[in-house]
Structure formats: C-alpha cells, structure tokens
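We modelled each protein-ligand pair independently. The example shown here corresponds to the adenosine-5'-triphosphate entry; the chain sequence is given first, followed by the ligand as SMILES.
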Amino acid sequence: MLNNQLSQLKDLLKIHYGYSEFWRGQEQAIKNILEQKNTVVVMPTGGGKSLIFQLPSLILDGVTIVISPLIALMKDQVDSMEKIGIPATFINSSLSPVETQSRITAIRDGHYKLVYIAPERFYSGEFLNLLNAIKVSLFAIDEAHCISEWGHDFRPSYMKLREVIKLVGNPTVLAVTATATPEVREDIIKQLDLQNPEVIVTGFNRPNLKFGVIRAGESQKYSSILDFTWQIKGSGIIYAGTRQKVEDISNYLTSNGINAIGYHAGMENEERKYVQNEFMKGNHQVIVATNAFGLGINKPDIRFVIHFDMPGTIEAYYQEAGRAGRDGKESYCIIFYSPADRYLREFFISGDNPPPKVIAQVYEALLSYEDDTALVTYAELAENITENVPDMAIGTALKILEKEGYVERSHEKTGLAHLRFLHEIEHTKQQLSAKAKVQNQIFDGFIKHFGEKLLNGVEFSPDDIAQISGVKREAITRLIKKLADENLIEYRPPFRGTEIKILQRVKPLDLKIDFKALKEKHQRELNKLDQMESYIYDHGCRRKYILDYFSDDSSHECGTCDNCVSGLKTPEDNLSCHSRESGNDMVDDEFKIETKLTQLQTYELYQQGLTIDEMAQIRDLKPATIIQHLCFLIERGQDVDINKFVKPQVQNSIKKAAKKLGTEKLTPIKEELDDKISWDDIKLTLAILTKR
Ligand SMILES: Nc1ncnc2c1ncn2[C@@H]1O[C@H](COP(=O)(O)OP(=O)(O)OP(=O)(O)O)[C@@H](O)[C@H]1O
Ligand SMILES: [Mg+2]
Ligand SMILES: [Zn+2]
C-alpha cells in the first residue's frame, strides 16, 4: 500500500512539477505523512520543504491545511499551485467575511486539496467554527520556528495552533523550518504537543554560499556596497536595520547608477506588493529592505545578500542570507560591520523587553482613564514613563499586559485630519503651478467636497479625498505638506492611536506577570546578539561557525569564506599590487579575495598607457566598467594618474562642487556643474578625493 502510494507520488512529482528525483529528506518526510506519523523537518533554506506538504496533498483524502506567516506571498503560492495543477486556495485577513465563508464552503465541497491559512485567523471564534465542517488529513506548519519563543521570529498567533490541531480532529502534523537550533526543535514539539514525532534533520549546509564580513565605518559602508554591487553582477538583496536607512541606501545606489528599489514595513501594502513583484520579475537589480522582506522569497538567481548592519541573531542572519543562490550557483553573503551596529540591536532588544517598572507604569496610566475603554496614543502613554526606553517598549508592555489578560487591544483606529485654509480659496490655488496636474486634481477634489467650508476648517479622511481625486494618499500628504510649509493652511494629522479595553483593575504592584521569564527572555536575546557578534570577530571558517551554532556536526572548513581564503593565500594574492600589511583589515581582504582580479587586469592595461576606449575594447567591457575599475583601484591607493583622462581644470571644478555638496551623491554634483563635464570625469575625480 505504502509502496504503491510512494511510487504514485513519484509519478505525480514528474507530472505536476517536472522533477525526476526527490531531494534529500523529502521522500522520508512524505513517507511519514503517508503513515500518519507526526514529523518535524529541518532542512536548509531552499531545500525544498514546501514540496513535502504540497505533493502528498494530491493523494490524501481530506484537505491539507498549510499554516504560513507569509500573507504577502499566499496569493502567489496559490497561483503557482494552480499552474501545476494542484487545486489550492488561501484564507487570510485580506478576504471579506463573505469571501471567507464561500471559500470554506468550497473547501468542504472538496474543490481544493491545499489550503493556506494565516495563523491570525484563528483568533476569530467564528472562523474556528467554520473549520469544524472540513476534513483535514494533514496539518502542515511552515516556518515552524515561529512557535518558539526561543527562536528568532516568535509569533504569538502560532501559539493557537495546538488548540486548532485538536479542534480539526488531530490530523497528522508536519512542522518544517530551516532555522531551528536543537533547543528550538524541542520547543516546537512541546508547543504543538506532538506525540512521538519523528525529527528529520538533513542539515543546514548551503555549499554554494560564500560568507564574508567587511568592517567599515558607517560612511564607508555606502561606497563599499556600491563597489560590491558594481563587481557582483546579478540580482541582490541589501538588508538595512531601519526604514530610514533603506531609503538612504536605495537613493544612494540609484543616484550612482544602480537599479535599486526599497522595501520596508512602513510602506502601504500595495506599494510593497509592487516592489516585491518588480524585484521578483528582475526589473531591478537590487532590493534594499528591512527584514520585513525575505521570509519565503524564492527567487532562484539572487547572487548576493548584503547586510548593511549586523543582524540580531545567527538564525535571522542565516534565514535572510539563505535567499541567495537558490539555483545552486555561487553567491555571496556579506555583512558590513561597524562596532556601532551593536547599539542599534541593543536598542531593538530593549524595545522588545521593557523592564517591570515600565509595564506597571503603562498599566497605571491606563487605570487613570475612567472609562474601561481608552483611546490612546503611545506618545500619551510615554508621558507617564519615568524610565528611558524606546517607544517600541510601550507597545511591548501593552502586548505583555494583553497576554496576561489585563487589557485588550483592538486594531489601530485612524481618525480624521483637520484642515483650514488661511487665505481665499482662489488665492491658495494660484500658488500651485498650473503644470502640477496631480496637485490641481487634489485641490479640486477638496473644493468639490467641502467648498467654502474650507475657510472655517473641516475634518476629513485622507483616504476619502484620495478616492474622490483619484490619486494616491501619499500625493495628498505631499500637497498638504507643501501648503502648510508655505503657511497657506492650518493642518492637524489624523489621530492614530489604539483602543484599549481594561479587563481587570488591580493595583499596579499586584500585577501577576512572570517577570522572571521576561528577564530570561531578555538575557537570551542578548546572548544571541553576543553570538552574532562573535561571528563577526571569529577568525575561523564562517560556515563552520554557523553550522556549529545549529549543532550540525557535518561542518568542516569551507575553503571559500573570507577567513578560509585569507588563510589559504590564493594565487590572486600574488597579483595583488598592494601589500598585505593590512592583514586584519577585512575590507581589503574581502575585495582581494573575491573581486580583485578583474580590476587588476584593467590595471595592467592601464600601465601599458592605453586609453579608456582601448582598454574597454581589449577587455570586451563597457567604457563605464573600465572607469569603475579605475575608481576602484584609485580608492584603494593604486597609482592611477587621472590627469590623462580628466583635465586638471575640470578636476578643480569638480573638487569645488564636492567640497560644497559632499562626496556621497553624484547627481547634485553633476547638476551643479557645466553640462560638458561628464559622469566619468566626476567619478574619477571623486575617487581621488575618497582615496584611503
Ligand atoms: N525534488 C526537487 N527537484 C527539483 N527542484 C526542487 C525539488 N524540490 C524542491 N525544488 C525546488 O526548490 C526550490 C526551493 O524550494 P522551497 O521554496 O520549498 O524551499 P524551502 O525549503 O521552503 O526554503 P525556505 O526555508 O527558504 O523557505 C523551489 O523552486 C522548488 O520547486
Ligand atoms: Mg519555505
Ligand atoms: Zn570557511
């Protein structure tokens, strides 16, 4: 029976996916599922975990439920299942109640084999009732480490799963993850209450990834990543610690001719989706993102993952780095580290772990509201806090109070904005340029909606005006900012706060919260940060360090990471024109190892006295690339005489402009100068200025 089913699945593997073999661990895991054994699978990123639950769903009699935190990817996942002929659907908060209900009916009627569900859905009792109606054969949990507080990406909604599994009649459970230490694996089993599970660990190794660390001060980081993206052709992800940095870096790269796009959680959903698609389709070489991007992203040809700031844990790092090289080809995973990175991480950790005093003070502030329902902003609560903690800590304190049943938070409430015109409408309108089509459109939208009332002041919802004028909400924000800056209007943004219900009133000192556990959690996060930092400073093999961290004992020296290579001394070193005295300067090492050769070939031609075009022709490269190589060499102290390429008086004007405008961005300098001065002139001259 089992053998029959397995060979049937091998046929289906061919038919639906076009694959002829199972990858390591897949067959064993699928066999377990067919035998109804609960199974935990730990396989590397890109190891093919999804197939383990997708494929057997075809022959199981009931449906396979897949729990996944990847709401943004669900639709795509379902579409790609449909494409290969596996009937699938999804349920998450993006659906209306009616749509949810109708999907459940369709599932019950057997139209789907595979159902992706976001765990947040289980907070609704109504939804849980609907689930009763369907027969579940397999309950698959993707990114299963999210259930463990010991892991790196804990999601409270995963805690509900144990209860849901019972509710749907104890089907076979499959939990899969790429980043679980032995401790986290055990915790997954405990939290899900799995009886006699089999744990399949195929290891963590990603042989084609080359790891490295480059030490660079904050401002050096910019030019270093620019170099890097120039060298390594192909698509890449740059992770940055904050939204602001995402924007700065992507602007910087764009103004230096790299096709980059930014992604972070502060962007509207639609925009995020757009950016993600653009990157997936290959329309942009580089995506600069916070860690909101990445989990589950399966773009095969990502050639590098750069961390602009040190990540908080090895797990998070390895998961993010794991986006690289999923096609098996050589790819780079580089961290740009400056000692200041640790502060950013500590800041995040302290926001995640408010001390008992802060929790009590937040609660006390809520008690001062007479109503049991308070509409407050974090800023208001922050006024009552005597400790110096990041704003994030207030949100965390509320979460803790909620978890212990003292308060309940409803969703964010967005109120109305206030707007009053300070001058006659016609006068204000005249301040807009007639060419600014969108601005005029919005303005007319306001007039149409409110007319003369604008002079007395109106309350409005930016979303409504966006709809009336047919523009994006951000365009409205921009116009309002412009008008306010010019003192033409008075404006107050909408109230953005949270509605909080007080469920229990006790004395703040009597709060029953497990402070000891909270303290342990705090300590654990700091320990993980230490381990991350040790990775940076470690002199041994990077890959081995990571595999050891996950207790993967297959580890040995990889021979390809920066530390391994600098220990080995490759033939490239002999070609190197500058000395190795800076042996512990990882910046130089890194470029020497991986990317030196091509620039040095150009350097040899340069030394023969050739022009840029001649060099380009011989090397079969674009002249712009030759310029890049020369800049690279100059910045690293090679002797390149740019007087041959750029007239001294042109250099002087560029230097003057750079003095005024800084050397970070090229575009403003270009704009400042005579049109005849080329980008190449500017790049070469700046290289001289930023020479180490
Ligand atoms: N047996 C196989 N033969 C060929 N390709 C496969 C096989 N199994 C999976 N793949 C392909 O490998 C790629 C990665 O698979 P998948 O997305 O399931 O990785 P994953 O293990 O979930 O990784 P992550 O932890 O990063 O989410 C997919 O494109 C998938 O189709
Ligand atoms: Mg996956
Ligand atoms: Zn190594």
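The longest helix spans residues 515-537.
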